[in-house]
Design brief:
The protein is mostly helical. 79% of the residues lie in helices and 0% in strands.
Length: 104
């Protein structure tokens, strides 16, 4: 085994730990906030939806990184996945898109 494969394996493990660790950190943040302020009210359903959304996003990012060979395309795919996550999260949180003919 050469040094490149060892470094590559270590890099692979590090980004995966960072990816899944960030998912856990994002889920823990509102749990901690609920302990210190009354302004955060998440139900178990909210945590479940967030876990599914973040887990699917992390899986999509992991697949994109594994399947796409070129770094430029990989970065573009990851950015597109993150933009989709932010749009869905914002819609679920506050309804940024709303209904177009609500006043009619």
């Amino acid at each position: 085994m050469d040094d490149l494969s060892i470094t590559s394996g270590l890099t692979n493990r590090l980004w995966r730990v960072a990816l899944w660790g960030s998912v856990v950190a994002i889920l823990i943040a509102p749990l901690l906030a609920m302990q210190f302020t009354g302004e955060v009210h998440w139900t178990p359903f909210d945590f479940g939806v967030a876990a599914v959304l973040l887990g699917a996003t992390a899986l999509a990012i992991e697949l994109a990184i594994r399947l796409i060979g070129r770094p430029t395309f990989c970065v573009a795919a990851v950015l597109a996945i993150l933009v989709a996550l932010v749009l869905v999260w914002a819609e679920l949180a506050v309804g940024i898109f709303g209904t177009p003919f609500a006043g009619s």
